[in-house]
Structures
1.
Amino acid sequence: MPEILEVEAYRRLAERVVGRTVVAVDTPDNRILRGGLDGSAFDQALTGRRLMAARRVGKVLLLDSGGPTLGLRFGMTGRLLVDGRAAIEYLEWGGRRADPAWERFSLHFRSGGRLWIDDPRRLGSVELDPDLSALGPDALSLSLQELRGALTGGQGPLKARLLDQKRVAGLGNLLVDEVLWRSGLSPLRLAGSIVDDEVRRLHRTIRRTLDQMGRRGGSHTGDLFEQRGHGGSCPRDGVALQRVTVGGRTSWWCPRHQA
DNA sequence: ATTGTGGCCTGCCCGC
DNA sequence: TGCGGGCAGGCCACAA
């Protein structure tokens, strides 16, 4: 599903439309439109605008227009396509095929071509000038100090904390499971119990994991991924992985080396 | 205020 | 072969 790595790939793809001018906005599904606006409001706000930049904050893709900024969220099954090209061809848990019925939002450009969102489950959304003030520091540039801050105060399990977009923006279920597995930290540990040594290890692991998996092609390319599921075993030491729900998400972890 | 839970939404896979 | 149940999780509204 789209976590920070996929959305960053979407952002790079979206750079292809920077400089283009919007001539029409298609909103075949107004259920994904936010801010109480209908399709014509999006059309009115964006038609005639030239796109100035493609940015990303956490899992949100932002297209600056000189007027309103268009914010795109991809939920679990949203893909971005530009001129018929997908940033991520295969999306875990996404549709197994391309279906025009899954097109939810589309920008047409004066110079030709278009950008659109394909989202079978409609868990994504589109918004003008989204409020991003509640988002925590971005996971791709997360400093040690920022991670320390994210883990400080309050209570709750480590994994829930890392998934909380107000604490750290961009990490999703697969990335957090992979990072905790590599760090040897249990998803159930209380965030406040993580000592400084472990915070440093976690920080190093986040950086290395995002870098490596970004090059491999997305959040489904972790070393743990293939073993997620019943009957799966730890790739490191072979014992059966345990399944537990943390932060409302299915979590797979190794009871042998994650403590 | 923070933390937890349920629901949204639909494709896909499995077992009968 | 078709069908129904379970599952996937990002995000939000809502409850405690």
Note: Helices of chain A lie at 4-14, 39-46, 144-151, 158-163, 173-183, 196-216.
2.
Amino acid sequence: MKAKSHISGGHAASASDVARRAGVSRSAVSRTFTDGASVSPDTRAKVLRAAEELHYHVNFLARGLSKQESRPVCILVSNLHKPYHAQLLDHITTALQKAQRISIIINVGDDPAAASGALEQTLNYRASATIVLSGAPPAHMVRRCVELGQSVILVNRADDLPDVRHISIDYETAMRTAVQMFMRAGCRNIALVSRAVRTPSLLAREEFFTQYLSEQGITLQIWRGASTTYETGQHAMRELLVGLHPPDGVFFINDLMACGGIDTARREFKRRLPEDLCILGFDDIAQAAWSGYDLTTFAQPYSEIADAVVQNLSNAAPARLTLTARPVWRGTMRS
Amino acid sequence: MKAKSHISGGHAASASDVARRAGVSRSAVSRTFTDGASVSPDTRAKVLRAAEELHYHVNFLARGLSKQESRPVCILVSNLHKPYHAQLLDHITTALQKAQRISIIINVGDDPAAASGALEQTLNYRASATIVLSGAPPAHMVRRCVELGQSVILVNRADDLPDVRHISIDYETAMRTAVQMFMRAGCRNIALVSRAVRTPSLLAREEFFTQYLSEQGITLQIWRGASTTYETGQHAMRELLVGLHPPDGVFFINDLMACGGIDTARREFKRRLPEDLCILGFDDIAQAAWSGYDLTTFAQPYSEIADAVVQNLSNAAPARLTLTARPVWRGTMRS
DNA sequence: CTGAAAGCGCTTACAG
DNA sequence: CTGAAAGCGCTTACAG
């Protein structure tokens, strides 16, 4: 009966309702649902019983108003349709969920202006932290948020901002290894496929790769496209293979472009991989492991990143954490 | 100076702070930031000025406490690493964002038990609605949430629950077309690849396809795997092609499995598509358009679904909306 | 262990 | 148009 009328009323039960029915104070109810608070087993039982009967659920948003720790976490993400971003978000939301955090997701576009707006919006949620997975928001916007008291965690942005937590990749080591891989494979005419507008993390890959390769005295041609999509990868491969100096090794700055490059090299130009051409990617997206690609690449430490994000929330991680991306040997690189 | 001290204080400015500095009441501040509220241009200007100086941002969570409409929306999603789910989430979060809604994301696993817990958790946020993108939460849990006053929107679950809003696909029409496609292609020995544990939406595809095919008097073999992954698609294709009656047409219940099937058919069994074998998928994930797959499939109406979700929030859409998935002709089906 | 009270940051009738 | 007041649903010192 009671439950039924409550339902049609449409209003969810509040702590007061529970207190009344259990014959205790609001405080007692609150304590029952707070870990480590002191309630006698007896009143606890009474509260639990009443709560059950009224289908009471603590209102997390109201709780967040008085209690710092249960405030939500904002995740700024873009390009969710791309495998790398989706996989990263998957890991991070799962980890946050395990840590009892609530995730608010803000889907910003690739556009820096839109991203700035979104980052600013973050302040409206009084989130305990904002996690930036997108390369889009420009550094000055991140700085502004920090100045306004936001705690910001930057994932895989190789820039270096003060008072901001960074979780990034040791691109220096990874790129040294990448160059060695091409050397050992016997490639002497290498191309790097990147994007014209570079996020800090793309820039880091590009610069270290270029640097280490130049130490080997090897020819490097750099091709830059408008985006980092599959189609751009195809486009790049086409231009490289009909160019004056078709490469014998191509490093795509991300796996998504590499997939496009592979399909074009094989289908349009009948190249055999890795015999005629070696290809290396970065990210280890799911498709890299598909037999149609079998792409040699570097694995983003997805789970480690997710764990680090969670630890950063409670300041349990160093403000500047560098993880390593390990090579994943598959079939597109001679070894 | 002022800004600086505020920053080091670490506390964000509240409406009271702004009111004090502007020399007006809290109400005036509130009204300034509420669309359509009545404030004189003069006080409005004073408030805006003070807000600017104090870097004031309305606390959305606190606002949600008193104002129904600005309560968040919960999105229950699973398998974010899979393209279909990621693409759908991308569209929906973008649409919600445009509609000024805040999205809380709950990443449930494939496991019905975990999904139930997550759905129940939803009640803790007093969300104005819960959008279920995952097939995982069982019907009785959905019903329970509705009974407790939650407004639930089911996306692409072909089940039929009372008092729940549904956005689904007209599988009947789609599957009739699918059968016609196979007929016209001259396939007479068809296989259907599905999953053992079927969500309502997989079940609908399977049943309508089976029904229409049987009307044609064609042999159909059904293969069911443990999951709907790329690897399962490979596995299915292997067993079908070494089986007693290798099919000349295969309908994969989703694109992801179809990709695995294509790679296996081409690489391991040297089948030419569509000459030796026709393949049809469902979802139109990004990879279906990649030249390595060029998969003929049915397109989920991603944007329409997202729009419908938003309209459902304000009850501007019918409680039961059926959208159509149109065939996308590519290279894996003779026409 | 427990309750009354103040506080978190907002909105919205209610009078004026 | 404007302000004082009550309310949204919680938590947390403070006394007892």
Note: Residues 24-28, 31, 38-40, 43, 62, 64-67, 126 of chain B lie near DNA strand D (CB under 10 Å from a C1').
3.
Amino acid sequence: MVKSVSVVDVARAAGVTPGSVSRALNGSKHVSPALRAKVTDAARRLGYQPNAQARGLRLGRSNTIGMLVNDMRHPMYASIIAGVEHELSLHGRMLLLADAHGEVSREKTIFDTFQRCALDGVIISASYDPEVSMSTHYAGNRLPLVLIDRDVEGMDRVCLERRNALRLATRHLLNLGHRRIALITPALDRIPGGERAAGYDDAFRQAGLAADRRFIPRMQSPLQDGGEAMQRLLDLPQPPTALVCLGTRLLSGALRTLRQRDLKVPHDFSVIAIGSTDMMAFANPPLTCLRVDLPSVGRAAARLMLRRLDSPATLPCERVELQSELVIGESCGPPPGSHNGP
Amino acid sequence: MVKSVSVVDVARAAGVTPGSVSRALNGSKHVSPALRAKVTDAARRLGYQPNAQARGLRLGRSNTIGMLVNDMRHPMYASIIAGVEHELSLHGRMLLLADAHGEVSREKTIFDTFQRCALDGVIISASYDPEVSMSTHYAGNRLPLVLIDRDVEGMDRVCLERRNALRLATRHLLNLGHRRIALITPALDRIPGGERAAGYDDAFRQAGLAADRRFIPRMQSPLQDGGEAMQRLLDLPQPPTALVCLGTRLLSGALRTLRQRDLKVPHDFSVIAIGSTDMMAFANPPLTCLRVDLPSVGRAAARLMLRRLDSPATLPCERVELQSELVIGESCGPPPGSHNGP
DNA sequence: TTGTATGCGTTATCAT
DNA sequence: ATGATAACGCATACAA
């Protein structure tokens, strides 16, 4: 751990003063070519690296953005984080990452820690836990904030459209002739689940049909076993012929149950999944799925933050919404026993 | 952006000096209960948050660890990063994350940036690109370093065992009766691929058989299409009856080719994959795979770093090696036409 | 154009 | 036990 070289060292080596070193290295206008040359040379010789802490302390900013995620175990986050990091790196900012591991209390702790870190801003992908009121939790801070997937009025935010997405997916199945369509989604009592159910209802209504809520089982948690829910669905007197399943872990359970009951996809049963990274590729058959461009979500959040930092605080809040796309795989067909099949 | 409250503000509010505030808040021995109470109270009233930058500047450490990853698009990294973050958070350290996006030149840039960030240490999961010599690249720095998946003598490092893993996988297939076993892996000319091929050879040798290198096609990149390689393999006069495929993207292509040729797994063809997060669950049938506990990799790296920080610099280097486990799915069976099947 | 001096917010040392 | 002061490394306002 050798002592690091500072402006003073460079100044001494170049035979000038520390102030001149700073000016020369930061490209000040009023610096003679001779001095600049001397300084640049000495800096390189000594391997000078300006101390970001000291510079940040002096300048009042760190060029670092914090990112608080609710739970990195969720496969969705990897791509979002990558998107944030990428966009930030393009603009010379660094990313400080913290994970709440799904615990709301840790979200609070992390945010407090962030406030001490002299961050230029914080990107938050927080839990939907109702006990967390954005206003009380993050209000009264002096950090620029960008929310991901939290539609709070008066804040910069990137939102994931779900209602129309579910409408698309459900309509796709209705068009194939399905009428008994199951929907498995976590957190029906929170916004994401509620929006999804609403889109599901929309599709039925627009088709002049009535949605049957018995086909939307209530899940306890995103980690709950989707297999058991699927069993209950299939044990209904009139079981569903198709499933829209939003949740990586839920899906694996549901697929397992289908295999156990020897229901072939798509011949006996149709499935639409949520499109995480490589899922379509591994599934056999490839799954039709709702796909969100997750790196774009991260990039959008980062761009909102950079925009906020570069502009006066009076800049009005912006809301970016990202749509889902229905990627057609080979997991959907007409319901069994229908006569419009190929 | 309200001006933040500093020790001076707290001191004024409590009617004491800044020095006393610092002592009181940092739990110094020599502080009267009365003063401590006054200070604690004032600090809470004003919502005082110590400035980590200033503190770091003064103390010479930031409680922040940098992590440099080669390419976050690789699905393996999410879990490793999560493991690092988790372990660091348990010890009050923060994680600064940077991604080289697979570009070696960016690795260099990032490391330079890290050197300026007053980090306490850096965890590196760098590329295997031969042009990157660890010695010239990272040597001569004064930062504690921990390498992930880079077996460099004289450095703290977490290594992924591959040779024995491939031996296990290959032996599993040999035991089932397979003799023509394909191996698809990226980067045969670098260490990971080489080690794998060695383990593959080991298994054959230990079974008294000779491995046939024609079953190990050369892949250009981990993003290359495994489907085309699979086609070439199946077009051999004596095509393989089983495949060990190490690479998420390569696998999806290989599976696609098997589907196209109407080869059923495991009836007509056996497959062993590399176990990324949720893969086994989605694949149909569930895949037998080689699984590494990736969060443990991250945690181990973080622990090596913390150990290094807490101890004198004379501490000898440590090498941690993580084994793979062969998780039995339903994708392996006897070769077609064999007589020892069920 | 360059040197000098000051302060960013902390903590540690030295007085008292 | 507490107050005063200096220093961490840097950038800038001001002086020359």
Note: Residues 294-310 of chain A form the longest helix (17 residues).
4.
Amino acid sequence: MLRIILFEDNKNYREALTDAFDLSDRVFLTKSFKHANNAVKEIKQYRPDVVLMDIEMPGISGLDALMKINEAYPETKVMIQTQFEDEHRLFVALCRGAWGYALKSDSFDKLEEAIVEVHQGGGYFSPAIAGKVRRLFMTEQFTKTPLYTPLTEREQEVLEHLAKALKYKDIAKAMFLSYEGVHSHIKNIYSKLHVSSRSEAILKAIEAKLI
Amino acid sequence: MLRIILFEDNKNYREALTDAFDLSDRVFLTKSFKHANNAVKEIKQYRPDVVLMDIEMPGISGLDALMKINEAYPETKVMIQTQFEDEHRLFVALCRGAWGYALKSDSFDKLEEAIVEVHQGGGYFSPAIAGKVRRLFMTEQFTKTPLYTPLTEREQEVLEHLAKALKYKDIAKAMFLSYEGVHSHIKNIYSKLHVSSRSEAILKAIEAKLI
DNA sequence: TATAGATTCACCAGTTCTGGGGATAAAACG
DNA sequence: CGTTTTATCCCCAGAACTGGTGAATCTATA
């Protein structure tokens, strides 16, 4: 019997999973937590075969917990389970060593199977996610780069204007560029920062003190 | 002869204005500065009739300088001159006591006339701006409110999700709302924060420590 | 109980942004 | 001197967002 622990803040969903795993003869849900603030300690205590980790939780996020767990117990297999499908979180999760990326919309059977796979050294990606993984591998050279490729001078300027919430048109005016010139720089910035929207770029830039 | 000083970081534009004012027999450009970091001190020294103030400058912004000048020398008439037409800056400028709001695309003659008007206790708004002023008065109740109307609990939640760069669809999932429900909250948030885009909302929320 | 505010949803018409092509010219580099 | 980066621009299609209007519930409060 395969032992797992669950980090999930949504009460309904947590209880639904608990009930479902009660009926499973392959996976035993040892314990579940509504936040991941003490995840590492709890991993130490319960030594699960697989960890099921939500992303959005009060306190530290599932992605941060993932990182800490992998630093402390790299042999522990963590599978992310979330409701969102954005590439940024996926990218971060992969970088931080997630063994799987399941969606809450997946059926319980799929989830159970995924857990077994992960335990056996395999991986699992929900179909919608799998496509994005491929795209990430095709379009991003993240294996050889640091957290992000450095921006060129001009890109940095554009980023600063982006972070003033100026419209493309106004950035163009301010930098004596065409709309398409701005657009082009922004596409490159997003690619380098592994984001896909202005808001993500701003948040990332603030976080990384790029601005 | 009416004495003005100019704060403007763009060298070309500054020199163009300098040359133009040299030929004017109504307005005398006493001095120009490429940033407004010591604006108050400089006002004290030169005691201009009117101050022409750019917004985007290295160091403190024209809008902040405007505020400081109005605190220290409320009788000094400051006219904003900028290339951007967004309502947010306009709103802030008005709140902080700008007497005019000119665009760099205005002709020099207009600018000169505007300066004279402002000196005589009038105001000046570039046509494109004037329409927005009206809209602000019609749609915003800013005269009686603090910097922004407090957000409701639910709006606050939406704002936090907004600031994670989640898509409307995903915010809806996370909050068990419909897309249109999210949309509705966001419209109210923007209105209360006097912004008109997600990026502005995030920046404002960070600034005001709402998140 | 009437009124106001908070919450939620719908429809619609734009506008803005995003991602995919591809292209050219200049600059940097080996 | 080629090759690679950088900077710039163009077109297109589709996704996402914004703003306006209107409306139904529910709750708290005068």
Note: The beta strands of chain A are 2-7, 27-33, 50-53, 77-82, 100-103, 124-125.
